[in-house]
């Protein structure tokens, strides 16, 4: 049996930790899906064609991104995060960009999946490392001031 080794395009690191278990677990799943999509694009898996695996993995990625963004937005509303609208706008923009790329790909427009995955990686890494860390700082400050409890954070 010919087993190909997969390559990790993104690797989880402590700098991405939010300290909110639900969010951290979802972020790890986004890393996993990004790596799966990347490996599909470079043919490092057992799938028959790039087209089939790209479409199937992109569908899973879109669904999971929507699920994660929804969960994160519920959390941000629950903790009354003042940057909620800007954060939501970033989420909405990524979903629109992903859906547009999928639509163009399905319509036969030449899309370089490998490049797309790298763009997705860059967005995910920068969003988790910077934008998400802004609400982490807010949570930390609110907890120190006694204005937010673990129960409110974890639902």
How does this model look, in words?
This protein has a single domain (19-154), classed as Hemerythrin-like (Four Helix Bundle (Hemerythrin (Met), subunit A)). Helices cover 71% and strands 0% of the residues. It has five helices and no strands. The N and C termini lie far apart (47 Å).
Summarize the structure.
This protein is an all-alpha fold and 155 residues long. It has one domain (19-154): Up-down Bundle (Four Helix Bundle (Hemerythrin (Met), subunit A)), CATH 1.20.120.50.
CATH superfamily heading: Hemerythrin-like
Order of helices and strands: HHHHH
CATH architecture: Up-down Bundle
Please indicate the count of domains.
1
Provide the residue-averaged pLDDT: 85
Tell me the radius of gyration: 17 Å
In percent, how helical is the residue content? Answer: over 70%
What's the CATH C level? Mainly Alpha
Structural classification: mainly alpha
From the spread of the alpha carbons, the general shape counts as elongated
Low-confidence stretches: none
First-residue to last-residue Cα separation: 47 Å
- Number of DSSP-assigned strands: 0
Total number of helices: 5
CATH topology: Four Helix Bundle (Hemerythrin (Met), subunit A)
Q: Which quaternary structure do these chains form?
A: single chain
What percent strand?
A: under 5%
Largest sheet: none
């Amino acid at each position: 049996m010919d087993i190909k080794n997969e390559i990790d395009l993104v690797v989880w690191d402590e700098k991405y930790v939010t300290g909110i278990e639900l969010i951290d677990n979802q972020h790890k799943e986004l890393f996993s899906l990004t790596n799966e999509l990347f490996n599909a694009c470079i043919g490092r898996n057992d799938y028959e064609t790039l087209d089939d695996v790209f479409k199937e993995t992109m569908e899973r990625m879109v669904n999971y991104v929507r699920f994660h963004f929804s969960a994160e937005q519920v959390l941000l509303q629950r903790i009354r995060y003042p940057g909620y609208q800007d954060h939501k706008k970033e989420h909405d923009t990524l979903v629109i960009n992903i859906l547009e790329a999928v639509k163009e790909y399905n319509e036969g427009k030449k899309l370089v999946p490998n490049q797309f995955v790298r763009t997705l990686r860059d967005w995910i890494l920068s969003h988790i490392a910077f934008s998400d860390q802004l609400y982490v700082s807010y949570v930390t400050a609110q907890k120190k001031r006694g204005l937010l409890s673990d129960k409110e954070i974890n639902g």
